[in-house]
Design a protein that fits this description.
There is one protein chain. The chain contains 20 helices and 18 strands. It has a six-stranded mixed beta sheet with strand order 1-8-7-9-6-10, with helices on both faces. It has a five-stranded mixed beta sheet with strand order 3-2-4-11-5, sandwiched between helices. It is globular. By secondary structure, the protein is an alpha/beta fold. A hairpin with a 2-residue loop joins strand 12 and strand 13. It has three domains: about 5-130 and about 235-355, 3-Layer(aba) Sandwich (D-Maltodextrin-Binding Protein, domain 2); about 135-230, Periplasmic binding protein-like II (D-Maltodextrin-Binding Protein, domain 2, 3-Layer(aba) Sandwich), CATH 3.40.190; about 365-455, Beta-Lactamase (2-Layer Sandwich). This is Putative aliphatic sulfonates-binding protein.
């Protein structure tokens, strides 16, 4: 694999991040309240139904209030926000975080470290967000960079958070491109540090998970050169909890999962409103949030499908590639959907229907968001251009416009896409590689800029 600087810094040293003020949560506080600490990542869109949106809506607190009326207990929830999953894992092992959410590779790191002892063991309880193709992890470079493809990263320096979903995707992408170990210098950095390093020219590219690639592109600080969907491998984020907490507080765990179901239903029902709530509580632009939680973006189905468990199994070799993780992860015990099954049943749902549901509950479409709740969906990318042209002619402001790559199925910003014209039809792609793949079977498709496409589309 590519050489990595300070390989396990965020994985091992993350204990420093978990504040000493966090108390042990194995018993009730002196005042009789039951404390619960939830570790989450406010800027990681794939986890919002167990993190940012859940916290903003107060669903967990409401479910706990209902529980308290039934059992006479009082609960106190503490939310702790982190940039990656590594410090959440460290806090869970220390008994200072009860429930957390993180991506697939961090989940495996968690399982390897925490399950070294029965006293610190953890379990994956639900999925917070997933992509059947891996489209939610990406590699970006500076807008003026000559790098156009992952193949151009040979001999370059790439920033990534080692142990993260973004890093795992980068390793897989480089391997598929046939780039030998040592030919890429992977610099281990937290997302915001890596973003700064990219902007200043200290690194050549940034490999990260949502929402960092979309954020930097939206801010005109980066361009997309690799869409994780090119791997065609499922990626996921999920809810994880300490086994001792699950055993001691099963009713609290069920309340949390019920609350996750509440937040998921609200997001699916009104993704625009959810995007604005997440934006307000994360500091991310609403346009970036809606890129991922809008129609055809992240699949927020909470069910732990066999295909996702299989994806975790396929990712197990990653642990060996990034360092010493001697404890094998037994997915048959590490993945436990029993609590979620009970939560779904208790809320009148059908867990089997969730498992069997194929694809995203929201269908991928083109969409123009004018602001507030005013958004218009179209069936294709050409329709998006028509809406944009009409808005320009009428002086109507457009907050954001989204397209769907016909090759990879990824939802992306219309004004940052790679456009091709084929007769009267236009197609938008996330990357040049995706566009070239399309052109290999559509030789008449010709490159055009976004503004040219808008001016050329027929009304």
């Amino acid at each position: 694999m590519p050489r990595v600087r300070h390989l396990l810094a965020p994985v091992i040293a993350a204990a420093v991040v978990v504040g000493a003020s966090s108390c042990s949560l194995s018993s009730d506080a002196a005042d009789g309240t039951t404390p619960i600490v939830v570790g989450y990542q406010s800027k990681t869109i794939n986890t919002v139904t167990a993190g940012t949106l859940l916290r903003a809506r107060g669903d967990f607190e409401r479910r706990l209030a209902e529980l308290g009326k039934a059992n006479g207990k009082t609960y106190d929830v503490r939310w702790e926000d982190y940039d990656t999953g590594a410090p959440i894992t460290t806090g869970m092992i220390a008994g200072k975080i009860d429930i957390g959410s993180m991506g697939d590779y961090p989940l495996l790191v968690n399982g390897s470290r925490a399950n070294a002892s029965d006293s610190t063991a953890t379990s994956i309880l639900s999925i917070t967000g997933s992509s059947p193709t891996g489209s939610l992890n990406m590699i970006v470079t500076r807008p003026d960079s000559p790098i156009r493809s992952v193949s151009d990263l040979r001999g370059k320096r790439v920033s990534a958070s080692v142990g993260s979903a973004g890093h795992g995707t980068a390793i897989a992408a480089l391997d598929r491109a046939g780039i030998p170990a040592g030919d890429v210098d992977v610099t281990n950095q937290q997302p915001q540090i890596g973003a700064t390093a990219l902007e200043s020219g200290k690194v050549d590219a940034l490999a990260q998970f949502v929402a960092w690639p979309g954020l930097l592109v939206f801010q005109h600080k980066a361009k997309l050169v690799y869409d994780g969907a090119e791997l065609g491998r499922p990626t996921l984020h999920g809810t994880i909890a300490r086994n001792s907490f699950i055993k001691q507080q099963p009713e609290v765990v069920e309340a949390f999962l019920k609350a996750q179901l509440d937040a998921t239903a609200a997001l699916v029902h009104d993704p625009l409103k959810a995007a604005e709530q997440v934006a307000e509580h994360s500091g991310l632009p609403a346009e970036v949030v809606y890129l991922y939680n809008g129609p055809g973006g992240t699949d927020f189905n909470p069910a732990i499908k066999p295909s996702l468990t299989a994806a975790l199994a396929d990712d197990l070799p990653y642990l060996t590639s990034i360092g010493s993780f001697p404890n094998p992860v037994d997915l048959s015990s590490f993945v436990d959907d029993g609590p979620l099954r009970r939560a779904v049943a208790a809320t009148g749902g059908d867990y089997r229907a969730l498992v069997d549901r194929a694809g995203n509950e929201s269908v991928a479409v083109g969409e123009v968001w004018y602001g507030g709740s005013r958004a218009t969906k179209t069936s294709d990318d050409t329709g998006v251009l028509r809406l944009i042209r009409s808005a320009r002619n009428n002086g109507t402001a457009v907050k954001a416009a989204y397209v769907t790559d016909p090759v990879l199925g990824t939802r992306w910003f219309a004004d940052h896409a790679v456009w091709l014209r084929e007769g009267d039809r236009f197609q938008a792609f996330t990357t040049s590689d995706s566009a070239e793949k399309y052109r290999s079977t559509h030789p008449d498709a010709a490159p055009v800029t976004y503004d040219e496409a808008v001016s050329q589309v027929t009304p």
